[in-house]
Structure formats: C-alpha cells, structure tokens
Known about the structure:
Layout lengths: L2 H11 L5 H8 L6 H7 L5 H27 L1 H8 L5 E7 L8 E7 L17 H14 L2 E7 L1 H6 L2 H15 L6 E5 L11 E4 L2 H4 L1 H24 L5 H4 L5 H10 L17
Parallel strand pairs: 1-4, 4-5
Antiparallel strand pairs: 1-2, 2-3
Amino acid sequence: MTDEKKRAFNLADLGDLKIGQIQTYLASNEVDPVYVQALREDSRKGVQNALLRYDKALLKQQAILDQIEQLKTRENELRQQGYQLIAGVDEVGRGPLAGPVVTSAVILPSDMPPVYFNDSKQLSHTKRQALVADIEKYAIAKTIGIQTAEDIDQSNILIATKQAMMSALNQLHPAPDYVLIDAVHLNDYKKAPQEAIIKGDATVYAIAAASIYAKEYRDNLMAEYADLYPGYGFEANAGYGTKQHLDGLKKYGPSPIHRKTFAPVKNYL
C-alpha cells in the first residue's frame, strides 16, 4: 500500500479514535499536518480542546526557535565574515564569599541542533543538567578555567576572573578563531580577535552555553565542599552570603576556601 493510500485509509478511521488516542498522537513527534487538518473537522469537544493545546505547543516551540535564532545573531554575522570556530566565554562566582571563580569557554558547531541556551541564573539545576548534557554531546570544544579563593586573595577578583578565562581559552582544542566574552576584555589574549559583550550570557548563544557549563561545574564543586566544610550551607548557597552562610561564619569562622579579603569574611579572621 502506498503512503497516500495508507494516509487515506487512516483518515477514514480518525472518527473512530478515542479522545485519549488523539491526545497521545498530537503529543507525539510524528504528527502529519494532513491528519491535523482532518481532525479540525471533528466536532467533538475533546478533540477541539486537544487541538488547542497542540496549537499552543506549536506557538511556544516556534517562539523558542525564534529566540535561539536571535541568540545566534552575532555568531551568524561572524560566520558570514569567514570565522568558524567561535568561542563563547563566561564566568561564574565573582560575588560569593567562598569558593573559586570558575570560567568556561565553549565552541559550538554552526549546525548545532536548536537547543535553547539562556542565562544560567534563570534556569533550574535540572534544566542546566540537561543543557550540560547537550553541550557535552554537541560542542566542538569546551573547557573550564579556575582560580581558587587563595588566588583571588593574592590578586583581586577581576584579575583572577581574567586569569581563569585565559586558562579556559588556552585549553581549547581546536583553538578559536574568534572569541566572544561576557563583559570582559582580555588584554593578554592575542591568539584570536575578541569582543566583550555586555549581558552576553543573555544575548549570545555560545556565551550562554559557557555560562551554563561554568555554573553547573561550580555548583557541583561547592556541593562537594559542603561535605568537607559543613555548617555554611555551601550546597544551597554556592558560597554566596546568605543568612545560613553568615551564621556559619559567625559560629565556625572562615574555612580554607573562604576569600579572606572579602567582607565580611575578613571580620572573622
């Protein structure tokens, strides 16, 4: 039986399908637009409600695809200029009282599937885990750069952040031919042209991916530190100055991973 005959046969049977079967079909990944159009002629209220949900889901999916294309705008412009290995770079952990500053550099392929990377701070841990899995699967290269609390105390948080970014970039293989960085310019990086983009983690695809990769890495690291140094709530606050964290500082004093030059940590030395 040809596909057209199969389709005609199935169309004739649509009226015999139960509402639940139609709902399951519309939620699948193999929806035939011809069938959908035929279902629109079905007067059953349950079918029409299922179609409303289907249409809303399509609109939502299209909105996500449009947002992804918007995030890719700068990278698409650069590819039209001949650049292919475009790295996005971001940091996580400049503000906490404890733990390292962590950076990531990520190079995504031009044919990257439509995965919606967005500002990591707006995403749940579960969603970030799924996106990290996508980065691991599809990225051409991805790296992590770290500067410890001791490194931060020896210089300052901005210098440490730049050093961590340099470390992440220098580990990339293949090396990038253009670099997009969230808000920071690296004067010492000479291997490729670079561009600092304000709020890049929310507006540039590769930077958003790097933000997610760095944040998930750092959050997992801080959860491990919570086992080593209990009482500060690192597993929940990732080293930021929450009430639980400040109460722990007052009770136990600074741990080995606290930033001794940061207030209020230095008040408890």
